[in-house]
Amino acid sequence: MTEQHSVVDVSGVSKTFPRGNVRALENIDLALRPGEFVSLIGPSGCGKSTLLRVIGDLVEPSTGSVVVNGKSARQARNDHDYGIVFQDSVLFDWRTVAKNISMPLELLGWDRAKRKERIDEMLRLVELQGFGDHHPWQLSGGMQQRVSIARALAFEPALLLMDEPFGALDEMTRERLNLELLSIWQQLGSTVVFVTHSISEAVFLSTRVVVMSPRPGRIAGIVDVDLPYPRTVETREAPRYFELVTEVRELLRSRGEHLLPEEEAALGQ
Amino acid sequence: MSAARTVREWAPALVVFVLGIALWQGAIAAFDIQQFLLPKPSDIVRSCWDQRHTLWPAGWYTFKEALGGFAVGSIAGMAAATVISRFRTLGAALMPIAVAANAIPIIAFAPILNNWFNPLSPSSKIAMAAVLCFLPVMVNTMRGLQSANPRQIELMRSYAASGFSIWRQVRVPTALPFVFTSLKVASVLAMIAAIVGEYFGGSYDALGVLIRSKAQILDFETAWAGILVASVLGITLYLAVAAAERLVVRWAPETRDS
């Protein structure tokens, strides 16, 4: 992979939702390099989820453009360049775990043998061997989210888009899944866009943290995270980690005069 | 499900049922209730057996009408819902009307429908049952088709899935529990429609006509026996739909086994 070209090029993107005339995004410029792990962080209403959806061609920008691997976002979506993981696992209840992972592969027209091979591979990757025949409701929240990640990665998309994927999980499960996600990311080398409202999670995972401010959603600043990989439990105790957490927090504060008290509290976590 | 669990689950209902019948039987003896007001359960069952050669063929005749109306009405309801839900504005225009129409006591149209079709032929009863089944099935199917999780739709779009794939893989599976709930309601309505339709006139082979004529000549035991036959057939149809639901909707909470 060449370092020059970017996987995602967001330029001059604004988004106004007609309903209530809400300016969700204003003049966003952002370039993602191949293999990067970029977090979008900001208080609710800063448009971070909207930006993720604009990149994934699930929301059309009002102005500006998104180029993915040299193509339009629409073309990239049609070429199956996106794997998406939402806050809730969004599993198909009527399908078993294996069949859930199989869904995008079926849509891509893979034959049964190839599908089965990949499903087994993905179940190993997210450490859910032996759970293929279970139904989603038989799994814990953390396991469901791992299935969701396996499904998003099964067809090797160029880009993994994650919208607060661990937001609904308890702190311990979340920290374990953070480590698992990093190990998967390092094995596969995919580019990740990760939306979160947790400063510590953003710093721990990312190569870069994009800090956004609300009303209208803008990029307040970008923090380069120079912590070495592989990151471990000790990373969370390193002095440099705390410096970066503070840096992100101050960026959020400096633009945070519009924050509601509960948003302020949420960011303090 | 284990046999022991099945027994545990059904035992309370069975006990209440047996107690209820015993209470009925005992109350008639204790309070000397007139036979024409309320016959003893034992007499009803005996009459049901003695007259099995008239009662059950009549029941079967009516059951076929109900089944025909159930099939026509349900299929039409599902088809209409499928078409309407494809077009949002059409759905928005028709949904409130459908919901309102669903609250109309349509059974009141029975004499009119007898008049529209040949009252002696099964077609008027099939029509009655079909009309009665149509609305609940349509309203629930539409609600089901519109209940798909928006995130699941977004996910399918991110896979560049076609509109048909999204319908087939997400909307239909989401709708199925709604559809089966309405089919169970419709199965009961179909039997009611056929019998009530027959009360307003019909072939002498029909159960509703038999119940009415027996009641008119004060042969209440046979009338009650006819009601028993109608109940057994109605419950059978309901159970058949419930069994189909268990086969098709294996993932839904109420059909979970373990």
Tell me what you see in this structure:
The complex is a heterodimer of chains A (269) and B (258). Chain A is of the alpha/beta class and 269 residues long. Chain A contains nine helices and ten strands. In chain A, the strands form two sheets. Chain A has a six-stranded mixed β-sheet, sandwiched between helices. In chain A, strands 2-1-4-5 form a four-stranded antiparallel β-sheet. Chain A is globular, with a radius of gyration of 18 Å. Chain A starts with 7 loop residues before the first strand and ends with a helix. Chain B is 79% helix and 0% strand. Chain B contains ten helices and no strands. The radius of gyration of chain B is 22 Å and the shape is globular. Chain B has helices at residues 3-31, 41-50, 52-86, 88-102, 110-116, 122-145, 150-158, 163-199, 207-216, 220-248. With 258 residues, chain B is mostly helical. The model of chain B has no long low-confidence stretch (mean pLDDT 88). Classes of the chains: A alpha/beta (269), B mainly alpha (258).
Query: In which order are the strands of the major sheet of chain A placed?
Result: 6-7-8-3-9-10
Unreliable segments of chain B (pLDDT under 50, ≥5 consecutive)? none
Largest sheet of chain A: 6 strands, mixed
Principal-axis shape of chain A equals globular
Q: In percent, how helical is the residue content of chain B?
A: over 70%
Strand content bin of chain B: under 5%
Low-confidence stretches of chain A: none
Shape of chain B: globular
Question: Whole-Å distance between the termini of chain B?
Answer: 7 Å
Query: Strand tally of chain A, please?
Result: 10
- Report the helical percentage of chain A: 25-40%
Number of strands of chain B: 0
Rounded to an integer, what's the Rg of chain A over CA atoms? 18 Å
Q: What is the chain-wise order of helices and strands of chain A?
A: EEEHEEHEHHHEHEHEEHH
In N-to-C order, the SSE pattern of chain B is HHHHHHHHHH
Strand fraction band of chain A?
15-25%
Q: Sheet bearing the most strands of chain B, described?
A: none
Structural class of chain B: mainly alpha
Largest interface, chains and sizes: A-B, 26 and 23 residues
Mean pLDDT figure of chain B: 88
